[in-house]
Specification:
about 110 residues, mainly alpha, 2 domains, 4 helices, binds zinc ion
Amino acid sequence: MPFCPECGATVTDDQLSCPSCGKPLIAKEKKEGFFGYLIYGIIAFFIPILGYILAALMKISRPKTRKFVLIISTIGLVLYIVLILLIVYIGLDLLVQILGGSILLF
Ligand SMILES: [Zn+2]
């Protein structure tokens, strides 16, 4: 439960201004800069679990960043699952050969 920064009264997430002193609470919604998105994106992509935890923690103040982190986390998670399935089904040696071969092609 958040509190009004002006008077300390308890406010709910959907309130636009403090019911006690009337101070606008919209400023709470921080806008994330490019680097904020980039850092969150990298974390979420390589460590999807951490991405989900970050998204859960930021849901009140950063709804747009949260949605972005959730999408990237899901993409990262799917890629990890695909990679694990590839390793399980075709074997790590063959995967390294295929990846090595495709790198040599470029
Ligand atoms: Zn207040």
